[in-house]
Amino acid sequence: MDQQLYDFGMIGLGVMGRNFLLNVADDGFGALGTDIDEDSVSALNSEGKDMRVKGVGTQKEFVSLLSKPRKIMMLVPAGKIVDNVIEGLLPLLDEGDILIDGGNSHYDDTDRRYAFLKAKGIRFLGTGVSGGAKGARLGPSIMPGGDRSAWEDVKPILETVAAKVNGEPCVTYIGESSSGHYVKMVHNGIEYGLMQLIAEAYDVLKRVGGMGNDEMSALFTKWNDGRLNGYLIEITAAILKFREEGTETHLLDVILDKAKQKGTGKWTSQSAMDHGVPVPTIDAAVTMRAISAFKEYRQDNSKLYKPIHPDEVALKGEGLADAVEKALYFSFITCYAQGMQLLAETSIDREYNLDLEGIARIWRGGCIIRAELLEKIREAYGKREGLKNMMATKEFRDDLFACRDGVAEVIHQATERGIPTMCMSASLQYFDAFRTENLPLNLVQAQRDYFGSHSYERLDQKGIFHTSWDAPREAKVMDPPSGAEG
Fold first, then answer.
1. How far apart are the first and last CA of the chain?
2. What is the pLDDT at residue 1?
3. pLDDT < 50 positions in the chain
């Protein structure tokens, strides 16, 4: 038997796991992998034949060839499979060994596994990894949370493997328990929002401006050289001009408009509601994916309604392109702001003690939402301890105000033609709501008190009040009720 000991182990040798392990080996670490699929093991041995890489077929051999304390990463589908892998490994591990879950596990599952393994003497890191298969090979953004001593042991490897921006590795210790997976979940929620915003921009440019794919590709390429610079803008430019081999057909034009989802966007919305944090742009993006799934229903409805204002004079050319650029930049800022505020509030509620400047810093490279805008976000949080929402900072205040009319114009142009811009509209309404001193929720409070005796507060007096609205009399000070509807 090969007695060479390896520094880092990977369970799950799909493209993502295999690429991550080859990345580890690139930097001089001994990399060992295993998978129940023999072809995946063979693929690792073939791709890593000139490197310090080895794939083995059994967990027993795998564990025996790792140096202690063993550092084992799992890149397997989230859910019960993770628990099954852990159960199979436990009899083979020693106290102080390290397990890393690099999949998109739900943070509640990570909390449970963290506590379970801690009681067994096994150090656990729930670790978000973003960048896809290419990022895993060339340098992802990595978000480890859990046992701090485990982080210190794997830090040299993960810092070497991670993407670099200005020489800084895009990895940092996130915090205790499930914080790493929670931050990755919010990353994915922001990703949902950004992708849908770009899709709406594409739809407006196409249907209002009459632009072709190649023209839009050139426009997105231009935008990627400016303040919208980012991975999703870059790949959109490439997608728009891509033609099927041997044809003049743009592949994008024949892709079905039904977007699937794996759940992280929905989890972000659910968690935001649990913590009382508004994330309407992310919510709208999740909703649009759900609406897209009802393709047949949408087809039937499209035949029932005539086109809306088809002859309306449209904003064209540079005027439309300028308005859409402003709308995207404005909406990108609000989407990031919503995700960062969710992290800030959840950090308090769950005692994660998150470093928001550090999170923005590691998102600047490797991950799907990497963008030039994240450097400004990093600066905003780096200068202000306890900052929860970045929209009011000087880094963003002037830009938001300058772009607002562009967003309104794009939404107007789209609405006149019945073109949905749910995410852009949610972004604008979020901004306008947060810059409004007096919202009409006084009426909502009065309604709640009327039908459910829920009570209300007043502007002119301190205390909690209830009124008998059917026969109004002087409002009574009372203790707030509990358990009624509304």
1. 68
2. 42
3. 1
HSE value, Cβ hemisphere, 13 Å, CA-based, for 39: 2
Domain tally, the chain: 3
Q: How far apart are CA 56 and CA 48, in angstroms?
A: 13
d(CA 108, CA 82): 13
Residues 256, 343: one domain? yes
| Residue 191 falls in the annotated catalytic set | yes
Give the global pTM: 0.93
Q: Do the domain assignments include residue 235?
A: yes
User: What is the per-residue pLDDT for 307?
Assistant: 77
CATH number at residue 473: 1.20.5.320
Q: Is 184 a catalytic residue?
A: yes
Number of Cβ within 10 Å of residue 39's Cβ equals 9
pLDDT, residue 472, reads 61
Last residue of a domain, one of 138, 160, 177: 177
Active-site residue identified among 54, 71, 184, 326: 184
Given 54, 71, 191, 395, which residue is catalytic? 191
Within this chain, do residues 219 and 343 fall inside the same structural domain, yes or no?
A: yes
Q: How far apart are CA 250 and CA 236, in angstroms?
A: 13
Q: From residue 241, how far is each of 113, 206, 217, 235, 404 by CA, in Å?
A: 45, 14, 6, 10, 30
Q: Residue 301 contacts by C-beta under 8 Å, 6 or more apart in sequence?
A: none
Q: 115, 146, 177 — which closes off a domain? A: 177
| pLDDT reported for residue 189 | 97
Domain membership of residue 39 as a residue range: 8-177
Say if 365 falls within a structural domain. yes
